[in-house]
Amino acid sequence: MKRDTFGSPAPRTAQGAAAPERAPLIELSGITRSFVNGEVVTQVLHGIDLAIYPGEFVAIVGASGSGKSTLMNILGCLDRPSSGTYLFMGEDVAGFDRDELARLRREAFGFVFQSYNLIGGATARENVEVPAVYSGMPPAERHARAEQLLAALGLAERTRNRPSQLSGGQQQRVSIARALMNGGRIILADEPTGALDSKSGEEVMKLLRQLSAEGHTIILITHEREVAEQAQRVIEIRDGRVLSDPGPQPPQGPEPDFTPHIDRSSPLSDVIEAGRTALRALRANLFRAILTLLGIVIGVASVIAMLAIGDGAKQKVIDQISAMGTNLLTVRPGAPNQRGRDTTATLVIEDVRAIAELPNVRASVPEQGASVTLRYGNTDQRTSANATSAEYVLARNWDVASGTFFSTADEARYATVAVLGQTTARALFADADPIGHYVLVNNIPFQVIGVMTPKGATPWGQDQDDIVFVPFTTGSLRLTGQRFLRNVTVAVEDVALIDDTQAEVSKLLLARHGVEDFQIRNMASVIATVTETQNTLTVLLGTVAAISLIVGGIGVMNIMLVSVTERTREIGIRMATGARMRNILQQFLIEALVVSAVGGLIGVAVGLGSAAIIASFDTPIQYSVMPVVLAFGCAFATGLIFGWLPARKAARLDPVVALASE
Ligand code: ADP
Ligand code: MG
Questions:
Q1: Quick one: which H or E segment has residue 446?
Q2: Does the CA dihedral 467-472-476-482 come out positive or negative?
Q3: Does residue 46 contact residue 623 with C-beta atoms inside 8 Å?
Q4: Bridge partner list, 489
Q5: Residue 434: strand, helix, or coil
Q6: Integer Cα distance of 336 and 352 in angstroms
Q7: Can you spell out the DSSP letters for 602-619?
Q8: What is the Cα 294 distance to its own chain's centre?
Q9: How far, in Å, CA of 122 to CA of 274, rounded?
């Protein structure tokens, strides 16, 4: 760091009688500057030698195009020479990095441009304050100093006006106040009167003379001889060469103060200031910011809502399957992965009894199905009959709501008794009590002895209550007319051992049948399959939502690129007044982060709100923290990444290039 530049000027002694007592402030030797535009190389400065001493009032005069502004940009450290050396208080600035040059601009120079170069979106006072923002002057002190400077320049009534509400002369006075904000030890004025009427021009010149008398070093650049004559020392340049230079003149003002500045900025105050600037910029383009915000809101909200719906659907299916019993094994006839031959006639009631003898088996239940017509009075109802055993209620953990289920004794005596599902009971009997009444099942009279509790629909939408249960023996003989089973339902005692039991059942049936003409599935595997399907759905929904989040991110990137491009000149002005790279980077990054963070928060609220509204329409919704964190995190990361790229672009701009942009 070269913090002590101002405090320790290189010790130099007077070089002969002509040289003044003071050491030179600025010493240029052999400065050239060439611009390369593709193949074309334009050399603008051809070896400038120049020494400027503290407290001088120097005018550099020359025709338009002679290279005055190019020279001024180099003097003010806005640009670097192509060759030659520039010593500032004895120190070679070639060794300074961007931020050290920025410090020099912030602490030593004050610029006054022909076109004023004020920030259009900021008030006069805010414009004057910019250099102090970057030197870390506390806000209250800064406001007071800016007001005081503006008042001294006759603009006490204009502090809250924007540049567009001020006349040219007033704007130029604002820019002089800005140049003085950090002390304005060296004022670099490039054609300060060029855009002004003669009266305003004279006022500006009077101000510069006054500042010179107060000890400021003034470097005035002009193409008008009369203007230049007002300086102490007139240096004439032509075609990039010094034509005449009377040499250093004794200063008029008091000894200039070059005590070092104390940089009072801190990372925190920098961030706060960058945040303020960012918020002001967002407010200036409120509508555009809101549209961008909307992109993020939609992205985040849809991720949250979609995942809540997906998870809700999954949870519902899992609940339904669990309700069917996770302790169940279902044995079906038919070899696994075999089609074409009749494989349905393999399971018989003896298999059921054999399975019941295995360890860990609570119940082994035969099931046969048939489509039947039930009749009670004048009412017909088509439903499915399930011919099963008395242990069915135990196996399926499904009880009767009224009456009783049939018993083993009913089975043994081929009883014509029936137990109705809720749907069937309601269809035939409405609100009346069916117990004790006779119904015709395929024209065979059965006495209703019980009604099951409601069970609801399966995950695949089948109404489990649209059913009639009859004893296996009766059903097999009188309804289905066959002895082979549709399936065997096996309930296990200990679910933890279900895989072992499944293996035992498999071994037993293989031994009994000689071939593997059956399949066994357990509910756990069904849940796994269904969960997988539902996860696919959730991923699909999530992907669609994530795409909209990316689109939102691209929106942020777009607005930031526009914002940077649109405000390139402002960036140049900030750099000329001493902004460090990180100041510019932070300003634009915070702008992007504010948009995406606010968008993310609103998105979370909208997403949860939409999920709640959807839930009120009986769609299952599962809230979880993960999608919320994920979506907000993504929005924030999007802002960070898509904001960082344009912000970096802005921070890396060359001050001269940025200032020259329209
Ligand atoms: P002055 O301020 O004395 O009118 P300038 O220093 O602005 O002159 O420009 C001097 C010459 O350098 C002009 O001929 C101009 O076209 C040229 N010039 C200035 N900047 C560039 C650049 N970035 N690229 C190419 N040529 C440039
Ligand atoms: Mg010029």
A1: strand 444-452
A2: positive
A3: no
A4: 330, 365
A5: coil
A6: 20
A7: HHHHHHHHHHHHHHTTT-
A8: 12
A9: 14
Rounded to whole angstroms, the Cα distance separating 171 from 175 reads 6
Residue in the block written with tokens 């299916």: 317
pLDDT digit string, tens, across residues 416-443: 999 999 999 999 999 899 999 999 999 9
- Could you say which ligand is closest to the alpha carbon of residue 62? 1
Measure the CA–CA gap between 227 and 201, rounded to whole angstroms. 9
Q: Report how far apart, in Å, the C-alpha atoms of 477 and of each of 368, 384, 484 are.
A: 11, 16, 11
Residues 593 and 275 sit within 8 Å (Cβ to Cβ): no
Q: Is 41 in the pocket of ligand 1 (CB under 6 A)?
A: no
Ligand 1 geometric centre to CA of 74 (Å): 13
What is the mean pLDDT for each group of 10 consecutive residues in the chain (662 residues)? Answer: 35 40 88 94 95 94 95 95 95 93 94 94 94 92 94 93 94 95 94 91 93 93 93 95 90 70 82 89 87 87 87 81 80 73 76 92 93 93 94 90 94 95 93 93 94 85 91 93 90 86 93 89 77 80 81 81 86 94 92 89 93 87 86 86 87 92 79
CA 241 to ligand 2 center in whole angstroms: 15
Mutate to test the pocket of ligand 1, among 37, 43, 44 (most ligand atoms within 8 A of CB): 44
* Angle between the N-to-C axes of helices 581-615 and 98-107, in degrees from 0 to 180, rounded to the nearest 10: 100
Closest listed ligand to the CA of 40: 1
Whole-model pTM: value is 0.71
**Which of these, 516, 518, 505, 523, lies nearest to 356 by C-alpha position?**
505
What residues contact 381, with CB distance under 8 A and at least 6 apart? 373, 374, 375, 424, 427, 428
Domains of the chain by range and CATH?
Answer: 23-247 (3.40.50.300), 280-318+529-660 (no CATH), 344-516 (no CATH)
Nearest ligand by distance to the CA of 61? 1
- Token duo for residue 656: 């001269």
